[in-house]
Amino acid sequence: MNFMDELLAEVEEKEEKRKLELDRLRADQLLTAIGTLEQRADEINELADSEIKLVEEYRSVELTKVQKKISWLAWNLDQFIRSAGEKTINLPHGVLKLRLGRDKVTVLNLQQFLDVPSNRNYIRIIPESYEADIQAIHDHIKTTGHIPDAVDFKPAETKFSYKTIRSEGNGKIKQQSADEIGVGTESTDKITIAPE
Predict the structure, then answer these.
(1) Residue 47: pLDDT band by 50, 70, 90 thresholds?
(2) How far apart are alpha carbons 111 and 158 in whole angstroms?
(3) Kind of pairing, strands 158-167 and 94-100?
(4) HSE on the CB side for 117, CA within 13 Å?
(5) Average pLDDT value for residue range 43-65
């Protein structure tokens, strides 16, 4: 190898190192840019999360206010239909109904219930277990009026419900109902209300 070849090889080697250094510098700049963008993404997520939290709080507060108003109005409708002495009242914007619920029988203490010999008629035998036959107990109470020991009996209550009919902007009619004044909501189409 002559002097000229050595000089060219040395220049090429220096050029490769310089090019590699430029590529490292560029890669570091790109990493810095990515880090800045990731920090901006985190800031956007934090801002969006705080805004979502504010919107959720607003929705909760506003829905609570509306639900209280609905409960109060439904309580007034309940009082109205009970005083009217009718079971169903059809109105232009909905229907009011009173319906008798179901009696509720609860065995308070299964062991005590099983220990009473006269309660043997009200036992449904399931292999490897015993379970009170609620329907047989209910039928016995209805026919005799006697409530067996260790049994709680709650007679059926008349429950109020209403259905509203309203027109949506697209010409369709939407029906929404509230069955049985109680607590909470079951779905967006079925609302249950508790009087205050």
Answers:
(1) very high
(2) 33
(3) antiparallel
(4) 0
(5) 96
